[in-house]
Amino acid sequence: MISRTQITPDDLVLAKEILAETPVYEYSHRQEQANEVGVLGEVIARRWLKSSGVHFTPTNTTQHDLRMVEGGRTIDVKTKDRTVPPRMDYEASVPLYNHDHQRPDYYLFISLYRDRTNKSADISRFETAYVVGAIGQNKLNSIGIRRERDEVDQRNGTQFWTSCLNVYHRDLVSPEVASKVWREMSPYVDGWT
Predict the structure, then answer these.
(1) Does residue 118 lie in a domain region?
(2) What is the pTM of this model?
(3) Which residue range(s) make up the domain with 138?
(4) Residue 48 CB partners (closer than 8 Å, separation 6+)
């Protein structure tokens, strides 16, 4: 089951602090807006993991976002900007332009919701976040649906801006199960607040 959470003023403050030191990457499709979505998704993931008793530290690497304190397993957070709440028949995406470089043990998928009538460019346009689920690297590679750049999804008219591996939300491990597994992997260290 997808986990819903309100985006708090503290989430926005922390995201803005991180954004001030985050470069815009060469392959970024949406430039600064991509950074906002990605960083806010990571902030939500950190808060959710901490509240779930999962023990991690953030990393300063482009290979993954979080590392478990014990065992060193890694998580990369993938975030989508949505104008509708996520559903189980929607897909989560991992872009292929950095798939060989980013080799985390797990992916955690977050969706940020904003009202489509809110045309603000400010990060506070996002109201709600959803922790959609997680998947391991090997499972993603075995069941992921390859989507090619400029391909159009005939079900909904979405044109893919880059090649990616997609997986249905229903095929992800639920947030509850993922947090239970990750909680049992390591003790808590408050390394990100």
Answers:
(1) yes
(2) 0.88
(3) 3-88+105-142+172-183
(4) 3, 5, 131, 175, 179
